[in-house]
Design brief:
- The complex is a heterodimer of chains A (251) and B (429).
- Chain A is an alpha/beta fold and 251 residues long.
- Chain A has ten helices and twelve strands.
- In chain A, strand 1 and strand 2 form a beta hairpin.
- Chain A is globular, with a radius of gyration of 18 Å.
- Chain B is an alpha/beta fold and 429 residues long.
- In chain B, the strands form two sheets. Chain B has a ten-stranded mixed beta sheet with strand order 2-1-6-8-10-12-14-16-18-20, covered by helices on one side. A ten-stranded mixed beta sheet of chain B has the order 3-4-5-7-9-11-13-15-17-19.
- The longest helix of chain B is centred in the last third of the chain and has 19 residues.
- The chains are: A alpha/beta (251), B alpha/beta (429).
- At the A-B interface, helix 2, strand 7, helix 3 and strand 8 of A face helix 7 and helix 8 of B.
């Protein structure tokens, strides 16, 4: 599904190389986790894949179902089925959460040649999904993420994911800033979306999120490369011994 | 002090280009004579005048109106869906056929041409009077010129609660029309009226509205200045507020080569409230100037100014807003915010916020910001599949929302929002 080959990325403004040849393939229906110390390039990978400005791809490729996504605009990548759950969801004062989501859903439907969803159908759907995430209707009415707690922001990300039904979901440190209960709620939301045909790439520092979202494959990233790939046991190893040993082992 | 020769010449040239309206009753002739003398002593604005530092007045002053191609639009009038009394002016001339009959419960409406012929008329105490009060401490010669030379307009006396709004509709049909309109509104104690205005009016438009709001009365004003790209307009809104009265005005502007909206308010009765707000979207060869002067001269009054501008492709915005608190105006609550969103590096916003306070127990605040669109927010929207142009429009609407929310009436607010959305959508096409 998502195939990343030899991806090299520089920061545009600083002439600094962040990704130094990332190879990674996420198959449909699988959950891959990327772990790694601060500054290893995990978040950069998520931004580059979703099309954020400020990064320059100097080598390599990234395809979604065989289609090159690196030349696409962010909105085209989204319509192609890519979704990034932000580490820091952005507050947009003045834009209602509901308006935002309806615009997003209908923009993607339009890009796929589908009719817009009617206001009534949309309302029914979003209320249903919000209820599953224990989000009250007030959160739908408020401006996007404004005044939301950390946990509410992350739930709002998962709600968007549930509404947009992407093929490939990237979760960038979705566990950061969450207490245990909120993490469980978010993980349940993600698990409800796990299904054949949908891939997940879960970026995290800590093993604890992976207790709730069980990965099929775990990658360790360091200094812009995937240095080790293994099963869920790899995450437990990190939890026990830290990254130091692994990094040394490879070096 | 004698005027510089160049200014004097420009003033005389302009005055010579307009014929004096038909002779009216003695009071009207006096008001016009006095106004004419004011114009001559002040001289018309010049680009070196401090008050016109950011907005070149040449095209408003020159003797002939610069031509302005009529903008062909398939849009309906902004307030078509509102139950209202409609009064139509075409290139600055009253159009009886297109207007409703001038009768309205709780209100007496007349044309200015008729009122000025009446020997004893209440308008004597307002016409040119509020305009003259508004000349101090800053001269507003184009308003005085209007008082001296306006031949058309409406004169509205509100005695109770008006049963529906009055909608002044201004059509522009001639490339070279040069319109001068003067409206007078007097609200008796406890009276209540909403005035709606829309349309480009003329190639060049000079409009004055004087509003006398008696104790406990309420005046609401919502206007749109539409997408007529080449028109020029200078408008003055003068109001005097009595005790516990309310004045609320909102203006939505899209395009127009030049628009200067001045609003001069005087709070003379205790516990009065004055709110002025404006939202504007400018694209290309566009200059929009909001100039506001609010004088607090009574105790425990509140005033609010909320102005937001979104500018792109070299559009320019100006805000000059002043709150003057006189020595006895204790417990004044004054608020002023002017903000611009510049969608590119070619656009420009000039702001001159001023506070002048002589009372010691007041709360006044002001703020002004200029910024680019929030790139993080834009990326967030795009990452969810919203195309960049639509995302920009959403952010634009969000930015303007604070000003639009100043409109108290929900249905009018919705009309303004949908009009704004329509304008933004069209720009996508």
């Amino acid at each position: 599904m998502l195939e990343i080959k030899n991806l090299h990325v520089d920061l545009e403004e600083e002439e600094k190389t962040i990704l130094k040849g990332v190879d990674l393939t996420v198959e449909a229906g699988k959950v891959h986790a990327i772990m790694g110390p601060n500054g290893s390039g995990k978040s950069t990978l998520s931004y580059v894949l979703s099309g954020k400005d400020g990064y320059e791809v100097t080598d390599g490729s990234a395809t979604l179902d065989g289609v090159d996504i690196l030349d696409m605009e962010p909105e085209e990548r989204a319509a192609a089925g890519l979704f990034l759950a932000f580490q820091y969801p952005v507050e947009i004062p003045g834009v209602g959460n509901m308006t935002f989501m309806r615009t997003a859903v209908n923009s993607q439907r339009k890009a796929k040649g589908l009719d817009e969803m009617s206001a009534a159908d949309f309302l029914k759907l979003i209320r249903e999904k919000a209820k599953e995430l224990k989000m009250d209707s007030d959160m739908l009415k408020r401006p996007v993420n404004v005044g939301f707690s950390g946990g509410e922001k992350k739930r709002n990300e998962i709600l968007q994911m549930a509404m947009l039904e992407p093929k490939m979901c990237i979760l960038d440190e979705t566990d950061s800033g969450l207490d245990v209960d909120a993490m469980k709620l978010v993980a349940d939301g993600v698990n409800a979306l796990r299904q054949e045909g949908r891939g997940f790439l879960v970026i995290t520092h800590y093993q604890r999120l992976l207790d709730h979202i069980k990965p099929d494959v775990v990658h360790i990233m360091s200094n812009g490369r995937i240095i080790k790939t293994g099963g869920p046991e790899l995450a437990l190893e990190v939890e026990k011994n830290g990254y130091g040993d692994l990094i040394e082992e490879v070096a | 002090m004698a005027l510089p020769q160049a200014k004097q010449d420009a003033t005389e040239a302009r005055l010579a280009a307009v014929s004096r309206p038909a002779k009216g009753a003695a009071w009207a002739e006096t008001a016009r004579d006095v106004a004419l003398a004011r114009v001559r002593s002040m001289g018309l604005p010049h680009r070196r005048d401090e008050y016109w530092k950011f907005t070149t007045p040449d095209s408003l002053v020159q003797s002939e109106a610069p031509t302005a191609a009529v903008h062909v639009s398939d849009e309906t009038n902004t307030f078509d869906d509102v139950d209202k009394l409609q009064i139509v002016f075409v290139d600055g001339v009253f159009d009886a056929a297109a207007s409703d009959e001038l009768t309205l419960e709780g209100v007496k409406v007349e044309r200015l041409v008729d009122a000025v012929k009446t020997d004893i008329h209440w308008a004597k105490d307002v016409y040119g009077v509020l305009e003259e009060r508004g000349q101090d401490p800053v001269a507003r010669p184009l308003a005085a010129l209007n008082t001296a030379l306006a031949s058309d307009g409406v004169v509205i006396h509100v005695t109770g609660k008006a049963s529906k709004p009055i909608n002044l509709v201004y059509h522009h049909t001639s490339d070279s029309s040069d319109a001068i309109l003067h409206h007078v509104v007097k609200l008796d104690k406890g009276a209540d009226l909403t005035v709606l205005e829309n349309g480009p009016a003329a190639a060049r438009f000079n409009k004055v509205m004087e509003v006398d709001v008696a104790d406990g009365a309420a005046f609401h004003h919502v206007r749109t200045q539409g997408r007529d790209h080449e028109r020029r307009a200078v408008t003055h809104l003068f109001a005097r507020l009595g005790e516990e009265s309310t004045f609320k005005s909102f203006t939505l502007t899209a395009n127009g080569v030049l628009t200067r909206n001045e609003c001069i308010l005087e709070l003379t009765g205790d516990n009065a409230a004055a709110h002025v707000a404006g939202a504007c979207v400018g694209d290309g060869d566009f200059l929009h100037d909001d100039t506001v002067f609010i004088t607090h001269d009574a105790v425990n009054c509140e005033s609010r100014q909320v102005f937001k501008k979104v500018l792109r492709n070299g559009a320019r915005g100006v805000f000059q807003g002043k709150i003057l608190v006189k020595p006895d105006a204790q417990k004044t609550d004054g608020y002023q915010i002017s903000q611009s969103l510049l969608l590119d590096g070619d656009s420009e916003f000039n702001a001159k916020p001023e506070l002048e306070i002589y009372a010691d127990d007041v709360a006044c605040s002001h703020g002004s910001t200029t910024g680019a669109i929030d790139e993080e927010g834009l990326f967030y929207l795009r990452a969810r599949g919203v195309p960049e142009d639509i995302a920009t429009n959403l952010m634009t609407l969000a930015f303007l929302a604070e000003a639009v929310e100043e409109i108290e009436d929900e249905s009018l607010r919705n009309i303004i929002v949908s009009r704004l959305e329509g304008w933004l959508d069209r720009r996508l096409g």
